[in-house]
Amino acid sequence: MRRYHRGTVPFLHPTPTMTRRADRLFQIAELLRGRRLTTAQQLADWLNISLRTVYRDVRDLQLSGVPIEGEAGIGYRLSRSASLPPLTFTADELAALAAGARMLESWGGAGFASGARGALAKIASAMPADKRATLERLAIFAPSFHIKGDFSAQLDTLHRAIDARQVVRFAYTDVQGAATERRVWPLALAYWGARWTLGAWCELRGDFRNFGLEKIRELEVLETFPDQEGRRLADLLRHVNAKSR
């Protein structure tokens, strides 16, 4: 930071380092907005900075009046009473949002596609002209002419069943080619790049299973399933992580 003097009154001239730090402080506040609890390690990983820098930046934000609750070693959150400036996006962030929205339009169900288009339109309408131009000239596309319409409808049905916690029944052909009928508790959809899978608790196997959506037929939504310990999304994720080790 360079200090200049105009007459007898000192003033600060912002350097690139100051600007970068100001951007980082704003990013920290944005990352804490709307989250229940964020650890210092998560902030360090996301921003590619040291834990020491995180602690210093959070302390400086608190001292400047930003209502950040929590402490080192536990985690931080932004108070519900906090009022931050409206969201702004960098060119890279806008490109990422637009690319993600275009992929969902093509590879997601009708509900996802509509939501992606609507969100992108709202973001564009709130952006200054130069930012809107960044969105419009993004040369990343996700063609959809080869995707079957019934696949999108099936994806929407499963998405709604997960949200409503409803059992689904379907005919399924496994990797060995065996045909079975399954009743499952749908918990999550995962996109693997041109391929979707359903993560669920399978009543037939009495365990968690992943099902390729392209092998699901005769899909039917049934009754609501209970919020049962050991069969929740968190349990599914622990199961997947344990198998991947």
Structural summary, described in words:
The chain has helices at 16-32, 40-47, 51-63, 91-107, 110-126, 129-136, 149-164, 233-244, and strands at 2-6, 9-13, 68-71, 75-78, 166-173, 179-191, 196-202, 207-212, 216-224. It has eight helices and nine strands. The two termini are 47 Å apart. It has a five-stranded antiparallel beta sheet with strand order 8-7-6-5-9, with helices on both faces. The protein has a two-stranded antiparallel ribbon with strand order 1-2. It is α+β, with helices and mostly antiparallel strands and 245 residues long. Helices cover 44% and strands 25% of the residues. Residues 1-19 have low confidence and may be disordered. It folds into three domains: 2-78, Orthogonal Bundle (Arc Repressor Mutant, subunit A), CATH 1.10.10.10; 91-136, no CATH class; 149-244, Roll (SH3 type barrels), CATH 2.30.30. Strand 3 (68-71) and strand 4 (75-78) form a beta hairpin. Helix 2 (40-47) packs across helix 3 and helix 4 (91-107) runs antiparallel to helix 5.
